[in-house]
Amino acid sequence: DILMEKILQRRSWRMRNLQRSWQESPEGIKMLNSRRSLPAYMEKESLLSAIARNQVTIISGETGCGKTTQLPQYVLESEIESGRGAFCNIICTQPRRISAMTVAERVSTERGENLGETVGYKVRLEGMKGKNTHLLFCTSGILLRRLLVDRNLNGVTHVFVDEIHERGMNEDFLLIVLKDLLPRRRDLRLILMSATLNAEMFSNYFGGAPTIHIPGFTYPVRALFLEDILEKTGYKLTSFNQVDDYGQDKLWKTQRQLLPRKRKNQITTLVEDVLKNSNYETYSARARDSLASWTPDCIGFNLIEAVLCHICRKEGPGAVLVFMTGWDDISCLRDQLKAHPLLGDPNRILVLTCHGSMATSEQKLIFQKPPPNVRKIVLATNMAEASITINDVVFVVDCGKAKETTYDALNNTPCLLPSWISKASARQRRGRAGRVQPGECYHLYPKCVYDAFADYQLPELLRTPLNSLCLQIKSLQLGSITQFLSASMQPPEPLAVQNAVEFLKMISALDENENLTNLGRYLSMLPVDPKLGKMLIMGAVFRCFDPVLTVVSGLSARDPFLLPQDKKDLAGTAKSRFSAKDYSDHMALVRAYEGWKDADREGSAYEYCWRNFLSSQTLQAIHSFRKQFSFILRDAGLLETDASTCNSLSHNQSLVRAIICSGLFPGISSVVHREKSLSFKTMDDGQVLLYANSVNAKYQTIPYPWLVFGEKVKVNAVFIRDSTGVSDSMLILFGGALKKGEMAGHLKMLDGYIDFFMDPSLAECYWKLKEELNTIIQK
Ligand code: ADP
Ligand code: MG
User: Fold this and answer.
1) What is the distance between the alpha carbons of residues 727 and 707, in angstroms, rounded to a whole number?
2) pLDDT value for 358
3) Which H or E run includes 508?
């Protein structure tokens, strides 16, 4: 130990020398000066002394004031300067992988180092850190995983949890776990960073921890609401039908469920009324209902285009940041703008996009200055709201909505709907326009709608199914799930917790007494939804690992089958070429992936993707997931080292189908044949619809009585995304837990299905099978 101490001491001295020589070099001095102009610098000393004196410190400050890039760096620098550099170990969490990566890169640059030296990052599937890394930026998920194997965070000296105001599930969860850890690690320092001023709530949660506010410098931003915009741009919102309504096109038209015309007119009238008389009180009763369904999406692309035109023609220079709800909409609008005489002119306008899964080269463009006399327009998701700062933005266009998942505990269904943002978000979006000079923000909704926004967004913990979270609570040995979650800042509904616990019991991850089973322990090691983890393990056990691995990796990534708005039919045909009449989106995915691998070997991967409407980026992600998952399984001893052994049954399609069924159960719907059409029913919800891009959506008959699906999502109706046809015997044999006790329970459940759906003649066959099964189980 003394020897170790000596080594670290020596390394600390070296770190100090390196740091000093950089800080005294001409570039270092330049960098230091620009860092000193950030508002965070003013609070450097008070921050360092607060951290020295308190176990928990809370810091708030406007986005861009230097929290993420500066504060962890101050701690690092001061430790190095005091000769303790090699003894400190700072972790800073980010809600999104892209911010962890860009920030780590930025901080390395500021220190005149390469990424992976003193400063590194780690996100799922990727990382850049070395043995001399003492400041690590990682996603909150990564820190949670680390806590699984290292409950006390041994060796870590400081933890920064960033963007806590977003109230993401991982951050909220981390805060409960860390709060629990603090008494055991008296020397650990916890620093919470938040963009908006709800610091008090966090301070109370941590027993009155001190808060420091970094006063920002932002220029004033003028807020224009819809009524002002219409006046300023001369755009006319005369009739709802004239307006192209992208939200409507996406959510309703494609599903052939057009909003009734009458309702449209009502909404149009209402919007006009509201615009004429923006006294919200008068309208509150009627408006609250109808406005909930009047989305800015309904006003749509044309209004955004008009606003952009107005800015480019009439306003001074400066970049424009447009907040939209999702990647689909962003790419749609980008394509529409391409055809525009002014906005599509690359000599005058540079249109860029900013979303969670963009490539690194694309990210860099966003920060760069455009060529002279070219205006930069960035179409972004609400990612640009807080975690990424584009400095030269002078104009913000805010659609007022963000796509967020909510969770309907009663129906146990996640819903994905663009919904109104909060006042805090709107303010945050507006603030993005005042970084370099006074700016303007175009809110595409009336002022009275803004007045009706909630103050803050609901925490994610209250908006999502809790399956993975509950499993993690158990594997972190945090005691009773209910008790643990009741210690969170805003505890979730008991019903949501109960649903999750019951689900985990059903897949045998927990036993009757809510204790973690062996299966549960393995599932908690896999960074996927527990049911997909189970599918993987089943694939390994039943020796059809490879295709199952692709299915699970595919379901963990986004859909690789692209669906460009203007080429939907072609894309659909391309996808169905992969389906070869096997009535399975999952099998189509396996074929597409394998084809891509073959093409890659021949050097024609790019062309292959282009021809088949596949996203090569997503296929690449699936490829990495496959590697990671099989590594974990092999490491856990669940996978034979010999690839051919674990794939000896991979060619057996029925088996693969059955394993898919075992993983996705109880996501199951019956196929009801009607004259010339099909309908689908789940046990609880009744009717569900298939996504238009599903291979199964094209058939008039399906020779399987059931479809299993990974996900049902409530949009306006309930939709199922990817599905696979399965037979009765697959469902009976694989559709539940394989353990004795649960099998009986599962069969009881199936009795319900039988009465509910099945053809009476099949019932007999079922009973016979069940008897056989029972004898097998008894043995
Ligand atoms: P906060 O976390 O408070 O929002 P940051 O620490 O992320 O602020 O950013 C501080 C400043 O550093 C911002 O003004 C931002 O423009 C600048 N900055 C951050 N990342 C980069 C980057 N990759 N390249 C250039 N400047 C950056
Ligand atoms: Mg930040």
Assistant:
1) 9
2) 65
3) none
pLDDT digits (tens, 9 = 90+) for 495-525: 889 989 988 988 778 988 999 988 888 888 8
- Ligand 1 centroid, distance to 56 Cα (angstroms): 24
What is the residue-wise DSSP string for 151-190?
A: TT-TT--EEEE--GGG--HHHHHHHHHHHHHGGG-TT-EE
Q: Stretch 591-619: mean pLDDT, rounded?
A: 92
For ligand 1, residues with CB inside 6 Å are: 38, 61, 63-70, 102, 106, 367, 389, 391
Ranked by mean pLDDT, which of 153-167, 320-334, 652-666, 706-720 comes out on top? 153-167
How many percent of the chain have pLDDT more than 70?
Answer: 82
Higher confidence at residue 704 or residue 90?
A: 90
Q: How far is the CA of 69 from the centre of ligand 1 (A)?
A: 6
Residue of 194, 389, 390 best suited for mutating to test ligand 1, as the one with most atoms within 8 Å of CB: 389
Cα 248 to middle of ligand 1, angstroms: 37
> Do residues 143 and 92 make contact, with C-beta atoms less than 8 angstroms apart?
no
The helix/strand/coil state of 137 is strand
Atom of ligand 1 nearest to the CA of 435: 14
Element (H, E) at 397: strand 393-398
Give the residue ranges of DSSP H helices in 342-493.
Answer: 360-367, 423-431, 447-451, 467-475, 481-485
**CA 447, CA 274: separation in Å to the nearest integer?**
9
Q: Are 64 and 428 in contact (CB under 8 A)?
A: no
Ligand 1 atom at shortest distance from the alpha carbon of 62? 3
For residue 778, what are its two tokens? 């008894």
**Partners of 57 in the β-ladder:** 191
354 contacts 380 by C-beta, under 8 angstroms: yes
If you average pLDDT over every residue of the chain, what do you get? 82
With contact defined as beta carbons under 8 Å apart, do 158 and 124 qualify?
A: no
Q: Say whether the ipTM exceeds 0.90.
A: yes
Sheet containing 189-194: which strands, arranged edge to edge? 126-128, 119-123, 135-139, 90-94, 158-161, 189-194, 56-61, 211-214
Asked whether residue 336 carries a pLDDT value surpassing 70, the answer given is yes
Q: Which amino acid is at 121?
A: Y
**Assigned token pair, 568:** 């939907």
* Two tokens, residue 301: 């692309």
Asked if pLDDT for residue 31 goes beyond 70, the answer is: yes
According to DSSP, the residues that pair with 91 across neighbouring strands are 136, 159
Examine the pLDDT at 762 and tell me if it is beyond 60: no
The terminus-to-terminus CA distance of the chain in angstroms comes to 57
Rounded mean pLDDT, 624-643 = 83
Give the Å distances, CA to CA, from 333 to 22, 200, 762: 46, 40, 51
Q: Whose CA is nearest to atom 21 of ligand 1?
A: 106
Rounded CA-CA distance 219/396 in Å is 14
